[in-house]
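Anyone up for a design puzzle?
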């Protein structure tokens, strides 16, 4: 089983952390999440198969960095 979360809620937590402490870790996380949002904008007009391929090629490496 894999938990799926909402990037908007995760982003808010990092934003709050950055606003309160000027956290560099939070800044990096916000940058990564911004990159993921940009990929989703690119994926908007694609069909499901193309979206999956785009996410595997471009979003997965960013999500992996964020997770690490």
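Challenge accepted. My sequence:
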């Amino acid at each position: 089983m894999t938990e799926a979360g909402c990037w908007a809620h995760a982003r808010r937590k990092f934003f709050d952390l950055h606003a309160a402490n000027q956290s560099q870790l939070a800044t990096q996380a916000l940058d990564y999440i911004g990159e993921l949002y940009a990929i989703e904008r690119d994926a908007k007009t694609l069909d499901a198969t193309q979206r999956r391929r785009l996410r595997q090629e471009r979003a997965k490496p960013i999500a992996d960095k964020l997770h690490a």
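A detail worth pointing out: Residues 24-43 form the longest helix (20 residues).
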